[in-house]
Amino acid sequence: PDMIVCGEVDTIPGAQSKIVECKPHLLLTALRLGNGDSLEFVKSLKAERPELLIVVYSAFEESIFAERALRAGADGYVMKKAPKEELVIAIRDILNGEIYVSRDVALRSFKKSLETRPETHPPLSPSAIENLSDREMHVFQLLGSGLSTRQIAHSLNLSVKTIESHRENIKHKLGLSSSRDLVELATKYLEETFLPSKKEALSGLGKKNVVRFPAA
Q1: What is the pLDDT of residues 53-98, one digit of tens each?
Q2: Which structural domain range is residue 189 located in?
Q3: What is the pLDDT of residue 127?
Q4: By CB distance 3.0 to 4.6 Å, which of 1, 42, 155, 205 could disulfide with 26?
Q5: Cα–Cα distances in angstroms (integers) from residue 82 to residues 60, 86, 142, 157, in the given order
Q6: Total domain count for the chain?
Q7: Is residue 120 part of a domain?
Q8: What dihedral angle (degrees, nearest 10) is formed by the CA atoms of 41, 88, 189, 126?
């Protein structure tokens, strides 16, 4: 075989250690790794190891997260509901020096690139969820996971006031009037976009070495 699994962990700190140990060619990572911020993890990895190829393999909707992942430094994005063959194709394409997103994401990006004259062709307004910053999206997900403001602050090593500010910004962007509405919407969003019956995986794959990291 031209690819083998060379390691497996279930946390971001564990992944960082395993990457140093195994030196994989390609990393397959989820967006849900406990309470860790996977997008920040991807950004830091690319800064430290620009040669490391990264594929995000997630249950979260690609229309919202694929572009965020690529901006963070990922080389591809594949949804878990896609056929398994698509993941293999994505990995091989990326190992061959290409980037990989689904046809729908590629067409969406192409249409955006054609909108060079907004006064003539005004772009479609993005959904409210897409307007959230990466940090706001992370806080939104943690709220949906049932964490309190204080727990989120502790998890992200931020002040309670900072998280409260993020909550207010999220409420404003989503047009919500109460904290209860925010938590209910965040919970519903996770239930609809995340597949709890299947564990997210953080895996490192290489031409000779593949590291597999199942997430919690």
Answers
A1: 999 998 888 888 888 888 889 999 999 888 989 999 999 989 888 8
A2: 129-193
A3: 63
A4: 205
A5: 12, 7, 25, 35
A6: 2
A7: no
A8: 80
Q: Which residue has the tokens 């996977």?
A: 38
188: domain CATH number is 1.10.10.10
Residues 95-144: pLDDT tens digits?
888 888 888 877 777 666 666 544 443 332 346 788 888 899 889 988 88
Q: 59 and 136 in one domain?
A: no
Average the pLDDT over 28-48 and give the result: 83
Q: Token digits for 208?
A: 């000779």
Contact indicator for 63, 89 with CB cutoff of 8 Å: no
Q: Is 174 among the domain residues?
A: yes
Judgement on whether residues 14 and 97 belong to the same structural domain of the protein = yes
Q: Are residues 157 and 209 in the same domain?
A: no
User: How far apart, in whole angstroms, are the C-alpha atoms of residue 42 and residue 70?
Assistant: 9
Report the relative pairing of strands 26-29 and 32-33 from DSSP bridges.
unpaired
Q: What is the C-alpha separation between 167 and 145, in angstroms, rounded?
A: 14
Give pTM, 2 decimals. 0.58
Distances (CA, A) of 15 to 19, 20, 27, 32, 38: 6, 9, 10, 13, 11
For residue 116, give the DSSP letter.
-
The closest alpha carbon to 183, from 152, 212, 156, belongs to 152
Write a three-state SS string for 51-93. Answer: CCEEEEEECCCHHHHHHHHHHHCCCEEEECCCCHHHHHHHHHH
31/136 same-domain check: no
